[in-house]
Amino acid sequence: xxxxxxxxxxxxxxxxxxxxxxxxxxxxxxxxxxxxxxxxxxxxxxxxxxxxxxxxxxxxxxxxxxxxxxxxxxxxxxxxxxxxxxxxxxxxxxxxxxxxxxxxxxxxxxxxxxxxxxxxxxxxxxxxxxxxxxxxxxxxxxxxxxxxxxxxxxxxxxxxxxxxxxxxxxxxxxxxxxxxxxxxxxxxxxxxxxxxxxxxxxxx
Length: 204
Known about the structure:
This protein is of the alpha/beta class. The chain has one domain: Lambda Exonuclease, Chain A (Alpha-Beta Complex). The protein contains six helices and eight strands; from the N terminus they run βαβααββββααββα. It has helices at 12-17, 41-53, 64-84, 122-131, 139-149, 177-202; strands at residues 2-4, 22-23, 93-95, 101-103, 107-109, 113-118, 153-159, 168-174. The strands form two sheets. Strands 1-3-4-2 form a four-stranded mixed sheet. Strands 5-6-7-8 form a four-stranded mixed sheet. Strand 7 (153-159) and strand 8 (168-174) form a beta hairpin. The two termini are 30 Å apart.
C-alpha cells in the first residue's frame, strides 16, 4: 500500500491519480451497505474503463452543497482537533500496491486511525445527532477506506458551524472484517470487468 503526499486533494494532479482507479467514495457503486453486489457495478466498471482511456480527467459536477462541504472541511478538522485533543495529518491518498484501489482520507489519526468529515445541511446533521450512529449512506466509503489503508478505525465526523451546540457529531467506526471480505471480492470483480472492457476495445 502506497501513501501519497504533497498533492492537494481536488487538484488536477489528484484527479489524474484517480483515473481508472476504484476509489472508496465510489464503493457504493459496487456494494450495498448490507454487503450485497450493487446493481450499478457494471456501469462503474465501464466508467473506470473510460477513465483509463483518457489522458486527463473530465470536468466533474459540483453543486453548491458539495462546494460548501469542501469549504467547511478545514474548519471542521480544526474543530475536531480542539474537541478531541488529537493531531490530524493530511495526506493526498492511499493507493493499493496494484494501483487499482484508492482512498483519500480527510486526515490520519496516529498510526491506526482515519478521519472522514461531512458538512451536511442542518436537517441532515440533526438526523445524525438523533440517530447517534454511523450513517449507512457512508458505510461503504468508511469501510472501504479502512480496507485500502489497512487501518483499524475511522472517526466519522458531521459538522455544522451554525448550530448553537452540538456543532460536531463524532462516531468511531471499527473495521467490519466480514463486510471488507465481500467488498474486496466485488472490488476485484469491478477491476476484472474494467480490464475486459479495455481488452475488447483494444482488440486484444
